[in-house]
Each structure stands twice: as C-alpha cells, then as structure tokens.
Prior knowledge:
This protein is 20% helix and 58% strand. By secondary structure, the chain is α+β, with helices and mostly antiparallel strands.
Amino acid sequence: MTVNRRTRLGILAAALAALPLEARTARAHDDLEPAIQSLDGLRHERPFQPWQVSAGVRSALFHSAGYDPFSSNDAFTQFSATATWAFRTAPRLATAVGASIDAGSADGEARGASTSLSLTRVALVVEERFAPRPWAYAFLRVAPGWLRGTATLDDPSLTAPLETTFSTFGVDGSLGAAARTTPRGSRVGFWIVGDAGYGWAPAQHFALSPALPASDRDKAGATSLADFAPRGAFFRLGLALGF
Length: 243
C-alpha cells in the first residue's frame, strides 16, 4: 500500500511538472507564427512614407538666343524645394501629390551693360512611384505650373535701368530615383533624390522699358531683345526628409 501510494504520488508529480512545459511549448509555438509573419512583412516592406520634403538644386539648359544676353553659357541654376504626400496603390506602387517651387537668377552682359534674369516657378506635382527594393524607389513626375520672370538691363548711360516682367504657364516631365540613407526601422528617413527631364514654357518677347513712372516710361520707349524660350532639359539633385 505504501509503495502504491508513493508510485501514485510520483506519477502525479511528473504530470504536474510536465504540464507547464507543454503550456510553454504551445505558447512559444503560438508566438512564433506572428513573429514569422512580422519578419515576412518587414522583408516585403516598401519605402512609402506618407510625407516627404526635399530641397536641392535644379539646373536647366536654355538653348535660346533670348538667353544669351543673360549668361555666357546655356546653364540656368535654381534652388528647388518639393513637398509631397504619398498613398500606396499596390505592394510596390504608390501615387504622390504635392507642390514645388524653383527660384534662381543669372547675370550677364549685353551691349556693354550688365544684365540679370530671374525666374520663379510654382507647380503642382504628381508622381507615380515604384519600389523594387525596400531602400529605393523610381518615379515618374509630371509638374504643371506657373512661371514668372524678370529681366533687367542696367546701362550706366541711361537715367534708369531697363526691365520687363512676364508670367506664363509651363510643365515639367521627368524620371528619377531615390535611395534611403537611414535604416528602414526608423520613423524618419533621409533620402538622396535625383531626376532628369524636360521643362517647357512658351517663348516670351523681351521689350525692356526704363524703370520709371508709367507716363515717363511711354516717352522713353522700349529696347527689344531676342525672344526668350524658357524651356529645355534639366537635372535636379536634392536631399529629402520622409516621415
């Protein structure tokens, strides 16, 4: 009877000891599947942070006779800033919308006088993004906008510098790519962004008048230069903050 009681107690103790082990094993198995799924999701994660703000340099080439008085070459450089909001449309695709501004100036010499041309462009931005890797994506951008320019010619022999302004519609189209420089797990990402394309706007007739009151300006007349076509290939490079 004593032996049987000890045997039963031993069996009961073994069963009690085995029960927590089985529970722990089952729980570990239950926790493993979500962890695997989480890792799998991380592996397929795409770099589509909703907001992105970038700043950089945009350089365009103006092959226009009207640009020659304002520069010794065809290059025109501007500061460029863009802000976009993106929403995912597929596992590897996203659409982004936003706005951009490009502003810059060039200085030259014409007819023995110093010249200056400034251009500011404000545009809407629509991008389609494709992410082949979690740390990089390519994009196609279309940016219709409004271009405003000011041209001046400062001749010391004149009582006032000559100037003219214009405003016109334009559109940019470009292809680009972005690469992330920070770990994927961080909530804020730093990116290197670059694109190249073509910007178009209608040609503008330059008739420069003295910077005088309207009544005196009409008497002084205007000085005409060759038409300026603010269009050509461009390249942009910048740094972006995604969050």
